[in-house]
Amino acid sequence: MASHIILPPDDEQQRREDEEADEPPPGHDGPAAAATKAALPFSAMCVRISRDSYPNLRNLRNASNVSLADAAYVKISEGDFGYVLDDVPHLADYIPDVPTYPNPLQDHPAYSTVKQYFVNEDDTVPQKVVVQKNSRRGIHFRRAGPRQRVNFESDEVKACIVTCGGLCPGLNTVIRELVCGLSHMYNVNNIYGIQNGYKGFYSSNYVAITPKIVNDIHKKGGTVLGTSRGGHDTKKIVDNIQDRGINQVYIIGGDGTQKGAYEIFKEIRKRGLKVAVAGIPKTIDNDIAIIDKSFGFDSAVEEAQRAIDSAHVEACSAENGIGLVKLMGRYSGFIAMYATLASRDVDCCLIPESPFYMDGEGGLLQYIERRLKENKHMVIVVAEGAGQDIIAQSIPSSEQQDASGNKLLLDIGLWLTHKIKDHFKSKKTEMTIKYIDPTYMVRAIPSNASDNVYCTLLAHSAIHGAMAGYSSTIGMVNGRHAYIPFYRVTSTRNKVKITDRMWARLLSSTNQPSFLSQKDVDEAREADRLANKPPLPAGANHNVATAFGQSASSSSNGEI
């Protein structure tokens, strides 16, 4: 079976590099510039090759971060001035002459007054918006929204919706808007809910859902479809999709769930099925790469702040009172950071990305002593993934994992509580500490107003993309909704950059020490650079490699 790999012929690639070396500065046209323009059309040069016919595929795979198995699913297009489109798969990539139909929205009365409702096929969204005058245009993603032509007729659509992983504010809103959007915008009548996560594809009955059934579910927390971790069996899932005639699959979940969606799409494409897969990223920790933020994050921060307010009241009401709040954040401390900034009552915020130490000069315990001496009370916020290396020095760590493959964490909140108590007991100093863990309160609430709007836009963007034949993850990039390749959101994790100004704002707000040496800062900068470097697609030429390299220095959801 042949694969589409973006690979210019060797002679052509060398010619482009030679011409770029002689290219005049921007704004000065010359023979070399004209030749380069001619050599770089908007669409990339795609060479159709078989896996057995090209002798250098092994070298190509070894030189790339994207495996040879994934090369067939990567679509890269180039344009002038360093423009690179990291495109998403489409039904037409593997189904010849897939039929298209007029979009029923063109006759919808609600949209008749919109001046330009359909998205231009050439519209893209840049990953990096802060540039200099000589910057290359860099990586772009396909803009989300309704297309003038779609690949599904309303009567033929059989859609299913599944929620996976942990709870998060907004899950029910996304479900509601998917059902109502499919029904009201595209007149789809066959919509089914998959119960209890991925395993529901092959172990539970499908539940028919209508706009009437989901009308009020956005006012409730959790998910009406149920959820679970694990249970992903690609072959069983796709067998079930094929047997039931499902042709649109909407998958709501975190990075592990999106990896599962990617595997489902690859198996669907392998079988040549006319099925679109839309991934809607969900993580309360806000650790999905590329996108500005995940839905439910604003609601989580708002609820977390209430827990901080309670801790502050407790701390102020006792002699040498300490309020300790543990918030979610296994690998990324965004909830802790934003809740701290929103509260202004926090004296110390500890997150996984910023190491700290307990004892000695400049340590946490010394800072707590000083803060209590100055203010007589203190509030500490700690993310659940912080300080795991310190705890492991005194408590044997378990290598157990949950059903999603995440390592089970030791309780940093309880550990800190005991360490602080023991420290002040040894100093014969009276103090009171109140430990609050609002984890399940935060994730079980319904979404707030801003998240409700965001969930609606995500759901509608997912529907428009699936109807147009695209399979991708949907997210907001620099304020615009875009279709993002699965491999881009699953290859890295979004983390707090402790070398950015946002973290500096937090340190300024709390007046806490950074607990960092210069070596720690240098290591953090290098870790940020590597963590935000996207995987280089197989066969990427010099221009594409440069664009992907530049994106490592910018995060769409980092600095503000």
Automatic annotation (TrEMBL):
<dbReference type="GO" id="GO:0005524">
    <property type="term" value="F:ATP binding"/>
</dbReference>
<feature type="active site" description="Proton acceptor">
    <location>
        <position position="285"/>
    </location>
</feature>
<comment type="function">
    <text>Catalyzes the phosphorylation of D-fructose 6-phosphate to fructose 1,6-bisphosphate by ATP, the first committing step of glycolysis.</text>
</comment>
<dbReference type="InterPro" id="IPR035966">
    <property type="entry name" value="PKF_sf"/>
</dbReference>
<dbReference type="GO" id="GO:0003872">
    <property type="term" value="F:6-phosphofructokinase activity"/>
</dbReference>
<protein>
    <recommendedName>
        <fullName>ATP-dependent 6-phosphofructokinase</fullName>
        <ecNumber>2.7.1.11</ecNumber>
    </recommendedName>
</protein>
<comment type="pathway">
    <text>Carbohydrate degradation; glycolysis; D-glyceraldehyde 3-phosphate and glycerone phosphate from D-glucose: step 3/4.</text>
</comment>
<feature type="site" description="Important for substrate specificity; cannot use PPi as phosphoryl donor">
    <location>
        <position position="256"/>
    </location>
</feature>
<feature type="binding site">
    <location>
        <begin position="229"/>
        <end position="230"/>
    </location>
    <ligand>
        <name>ATP</name>
    </ligand>
</feature>
<dbReference type="InterPro" id="IPR050929">
    <property type="entry name" value="PFKA"/>
</dbReference>
<keyword id="KW-0808">Transferase</keyword>
<keyword id="KW-0067">ATP-binding</keyword>
<keyword id="KW-0324">Glycolysis</keyword>
<feature type="binding site">
    <location>
        <position position="384"/>
    </location>
    <ligand>
        <name>substrate</name>
    </ligand>
</feature>
<feature type="compositionally biased region" description="Polar residues">
    <location>
        <begin position="548"/>
        <end position="560"/>
    </location>
</feature>
<keyword id="KW-0963">Cytoplasm</keyword>
<feature type="region of interest" description="Disordered">
    <location>
        <begin position="1"/>
        <end position="33"/>
    </location>
</feature>
<keyword id="KW-0021">Allosteric enzyme</keyword>
<feature type="binding site">
    <location>
        <begin position="440"/>
        <end position="443"/>
    </location>
    <ligand>
        <name>substrate</name>
    </ligand>
</feature>
<feature type="binding site">
    <location>
        <position position="255"/>
    </location>
    <ligand>
        <name>Mg(2+)</name>
    </ligand>
</feature>
<dbReference type="GO" id="GO:0006002">
    <property type="term" value="P:fructose 6-phosphate metabolic process"/>
</dbReference>
<feature type="region of interest" description="Disordered">
    <location>
        <begin position="528"/>
        <end position="560"/>
    </location>
</feature>
<feature type="binding site">
    <location>
        <begin position="254"/>
        <end position="257"/>
    </location>
    <ligand>
        <name>ATP</name>
    </ligand>
</feature>
<keyword id="KW-0418">Kinase</keyword>
<dbReference type="InterPro" id="IPR022953">
    <property type="entry name" value="ATP_PFK"/>
</dbReference>
<keyword id="KW-0547">Nucleotide-binding</keyword>
<feature type="domain" description="Phosphofructokinase">
    <location>
        <begin position="159"/>
        <end position="464"/>
    </location>
</feature>
<feature type="binding site">
    <location>
        <begin position="283"/>
        <end position="285"/>
    </location>
    <ligand>
        <name>substrate</name>
    </ligand>
</feature>
<comment type="similarity">
    <text>Belongs to the phosphofructokinase type A (PFKA) family. PPi-dependent PFK group II subfamily. Atypical ATP-dependent clade 'X' sub-subfamily.</text>
</comment>
<comment type="subunit">
    <text>Homotetramer.</text>
</comment>
<keyword id="KW-0460">Magnesium</keyword>
<dbReference type="GO" id="GO:0005737">
    <property type="term" value="C:cytoplasm"/>
</dbReference>
<feature type="binding site">
    <location>
        <position position="166"/>
    </location>
    <ligand>
        <name>ATP</name>
    </ligand>
</feature>
<keyword id="KW-0479">Metal-binding</keyword>
<dbReference type="Pfam" id="PF00365">
    <property type="entry name" value="PFK"/>
</dbReference>
<dbReference type="InterPro" id="IPR000023">
    <property type="entry name" value="Phosphofructokinase_dom"/>
</dbReference>
<dbReference type="GO" id="GO:0046872">
    <property type="term" value="F:metal ion binding"/>
</dbReference>
<dbReference type="InterPro" id="IPR012004">
    <property type="entry name" value="PyroP-dep_PFK_TP0108"/>
</dbReference>
<feature type="binding site">
    <location>
        <begin position="328"/>
        <end position="330"/>
    </location>
    <ligand>
        <name>substrate</name>
    </ligand>
</feature>
